[in-house]
Amino acid sequence: MNKHQSALDALVGAILPADRMRAARDIIEPMADSAKTASGVDALDFTVALNTILFADLLDRTATGAAYVDDVRRSGRRVRFDHGALRTIRLPHGDTGSLPAGEQAFRRILEPLGYAEAAIYPLPRLRMTGRAYRHRTHPETIPQFFVSELHVDRFDAEFAGAAARVFGTSRDPIDAETAAALARLGRGETLPPDVAAHALRVAVGAFGRQHDRPMLADYELLKRTSAEAAWIATEGNAFNHATDRVPDVAALAEAQRALGRPIKDSVEVSGSGRVRQTAFRADPVDRAFGMPVGPDRTLSVPGSFYEFITRDVDPATGTLDLSFDSGNATGIFGMTKAA
Fold it and tell me: According to its UniProt record, which protein family does this protein belong to (predicted)?
């Protein structure tokens, strides 16, 4: 193991136990080779570490995805981590407590790490907008982030009231020290290992639920109109899914179906035909809900899931088609719809 890999392992190992760090490192195809000679943690190291930890966290929360990845590990192959997806919410007056509204809460993290907004995808049926953040220097090997934003102003007043009660309690997880560290990375500086480890731990924590547990009545009101809003109410900004880039998504879907795993009934195909996606249905999770009187009530609700994508080369550019598709995304969102 080279010196750089050891330093990267130490950074990830500051957050994950050693066995989980090694398992995540060994199952993901390398994201980037660092050519730096200076000591310290640069933006590229930080980005690789963040993606590695978020992938490991997703597997901790999705038993079906973890079973698939175990199969990959036993076969001697690796996962090509294509992208991670998360959901955010924007209230009419931006009132999500101290948390920046919608996708702005993550733009401030991703841009200093070398990401840029690559495209915007309207999702009108869901009353949402998706944004793809792509790494500027390693677009094909460092995972993209698909950040969706639900627009509460496109719903009625009753829905908006419930959303304000649920999401108005949000707290900003990014402290001043982490904001300063991200700014330094964005300027091309390196961080001492202890400073980087603190900032990484805080950044990972941003991919979670920042608001109080919802009242059951508010959750049910949101759920009646928007399964996506209900999902954000329980899961917050956690990775909704992580995606494996595979050679033939249709063949993989058939193989997973034969194993009895809860794979989507059909493959989503982009308008160009070059991007094809499918996914497991979300694994259920138990979440607590507030009641008007008495103790909280625990219910089983949809959690996160694992996705698959096949990307073909775009003949116009001669490079891999890294785009997304609004129709595909809308279909994939259905994986977290409650029964």
Answer: Belongs to the 2-oxoadipate dioxygenase/decarboxylase family.
